Amino acid sequence: MRVTVALGEPFWRQVNAREVALELPAGATVGLLLDALARSYPELKQALQDEDLPTAVFLGDQLAGPASPLGEGDRPTLLWALAGG
Amino acid sequence: MIEPREVTIDLSSGSAQWEPIPERLARAFLGGRGLNMLHLARRMGGGARQVDPFGPQNPLIFGAGMLSGTLAPNAARFNVSAKSPETLGLGDSNCGGFFAAAMRKAGFDRVILLGQAPEPSYLLLQDGQATLLPADGLWGLNTREVQEQLKARHGPGTVSAVIGPAGENRVRMASVMTGLKNTAGRTGMGAVMGSKNLKAIVARGGKLESADPAAMRRARIQQTEHLQRSGVVKVLGRLGTPFLYDVSNRLGAIRTRNSQDNFFEDSLNAERFEEFSEKMLACSSCVVHCRHKNKLGGEGPEYSTVGLLGANLGIASPEQVIRLNNLVNELGMDASSTGTIIAWAMELYQRGLIDDRLTQSRLEWGDFERVYALIQDMAYRRGFGALLAESAQARHQLPAQAADYLIAVKDLPQSDPHDVRYIKSFALGIAVASRGADHLRNRPTLDILRLPDRVRQELFGFETSPDPTAYEGKARMVAWHDDMYAVADCLGICRFVTRGFNSPHLLGYEHFSELIQAGTGLALAEDELQEAGRRVIDLERWLNLQFGRTRADDTLPRRYFDDPMPARATKGHRIERAKFEVMLDEYYRARGWDEQGRLSPERAGELEGYLLLP
User: Fold this and answer.
1) Interface list for B 175-234 with A (CB within 8 A)
2) pTM for the whole thing?
3) Which residues of B touch A53 (CB under 8 A)?
4) ipTM of the assembly?
5) What's the 3-state SS for B307-364?
């Protein structure tokens, strides 16, 4: 299935694009998506695996966990989970 | 130990009294915010409620951090403290830039100002001497102009902390500024300075030696390498704080139109501000470099300003937000209070609680020209602006219902543009923060990071929930942040390298202990430092009790209890009153206070003993 990933701060800067598309196997989860992203876009790997700042993934308006299932046409959003300045 | 020095100057008579800071007080309160609070408590005593914040008896205290001006990473900060004209309670504000270093190099760790100068004046600190000079040709200038004039008058190397027209006119959210953007903005310390007829403090000359320069250089190198491995430090150095807007907005946690909404336009994302950025700047000894110089003649904006002079006012143009940012800085006003108070007025107008008879013209969301003019009117106390210049105290001149829409705690407008209804520990933090609604006293941001259990356990030393929306067990975490941030403020170290603020891996007590030994020669173990932080928080509580604060003041804006967040991932979240009260009980217990938030008799006795010591 094809999934379009919206890249929030600071991920989009690594690939200079606000979104990227990925082909994933049916039944893929958010955890699998992050692994696939790191493989397809090695420049994202460091930010995705930063010890300081775990990546937050939103599905629609909801925060998703690694086991959350993805569906055809989903548009997950990636952000660093920071609050405030 | 290198002996720090402080001077008390009576501006009415011009007399000055020098005193060394005794080691026992340095061990107990360190410096910066801690010793400022000690002096404020001594001057306030039991008559705190009666002290007129604009009267000669209100002390205005400038205190450099214990490590400010040394090579310690990000040790650039000083605190300004007094009774607040904005809240009528504890006034305290922390500021970066180069002034703290200049003040210490000139021979001053702390300057305590009493009385009122008989004419507009400024204070020159140079080579250990303090001289009061007439502010001829300076009164009336904005903060940029007056610093340029002072530099021209005193030569290269001159660094000043100044007020603008807002401070001169006793605007209750007036700031003290140094440089184009570094601001002691919170609690109206610029208005106190204006009431003392003091336009500026100028520092120049001298140098500062660490007790063990080689050890300090070694500690700096090691700690800088440690900090530069942090992802958040790297991103702050590249992007500054505006990148946080996208994060909060995407979550549905950006204060919008006075928190009626919780998300706004993507047009305020960081990349739109980068078009206006010339370069990144840093404060003295900084290893982060988070500050933008903008192409419109100023510095910034920070994330707080993007949120509060942008989304919170319905203004979606980055250029307009930068123009408002530069304006408040030149006039010398706190951006957080200014943005919060104008948004409050806009909602009152929207609801018909005030109308054109009071506002004198329409007051609509997103009207940049109107906001720009209104900020000027506030600074010069003209028309409707004169009412808003009263900040939260304006509620006494408005219909009673107006207070329901004010986003403030203890009469201090909320600083962070983040809507705290989602993260419950954050909500408790702004409710109990000693100076009012403020994120820099104790914000437990790590709550949203969903850090692994192991990391949280190692960091805090006790179990916490990974769920940011949980109430249970959050109070101890807030207390942990209280202590850590208080110690950083006492040392003059910036939040962006302080453990707990955006990362669990930044500088903590073990790093601070090493830096203090190298910088001052004072041996302070990690547990002694944490205890110093606790003592400072307890002294601030003691002060708040003197100001008449009670448990009822440790609360939140009505909207945060009653109105659910309207959209996005945070939709439906609010603070449940009963659960909040349980959290507050837990917080008081964690601090060793009674159920009304009062200190134990033993602790009160210990603190009062310090007040009596020479």
Assistant:
1) 230-232
2) 0.97
3) 231-232, 449, 502-503
4) 0.89
5) HHCCHHHCCCCHHHHHHHHHHHHHHCECHHHHHHHHHHHHHHHHCCCCCHHHHCCCCC
